[in-house]
Amino acid sequence: MTNRMTDSPLASQAVGNKLFTECDNPEEIAAAALGQGKQLAKKLEQVVVAYPAVALGAAVATGLVLGWWVKRK
Cβ(70)–Cβ(37) under 8 Å? Predict the structure, then answer.
């Protein structure tokens, strides 16, 4: 399976903690988004490792709610 966040050519560009409003061109915006996505994925992985039962429960609850919502539509 390909990890698109690390295999991207933008993954090697160091942007730091820039916000989208601080970026001047589309490449910087994409690199900033990639950096923020990596940070979010890392935090999410840390939460899942720390609290696996809560993460599984949240995933099941989300699936049930989405299934109910789709069925009602």
Answer: no
**Domain residue ranges in the chain:** 4-72
DSSP annotation string for 11-51: GGS---S--GGG--SHHHHHHHHHHHHHHHHHHHHHHHHH-
The predicted structure's pLDDT at residue 35: 82
pTM over 0.70: no
Which residue in the block uniquely carries the two structure tokens 């991207």? 8
How many of the other CB atoms lie within 10 Å of CB of 34?
19
Q: Which of 12, 50, 55 is nearest to 34 (CA)?
A: 12
How many CA atoms, within 13 angstroms, populate the side-chain half-sphere of residue 8? 16
Do residues 5 and 34 lie in contact, with contact meaning Cβ atoms separated by under 8 Å?
yes
pLDDT score of 14:
46
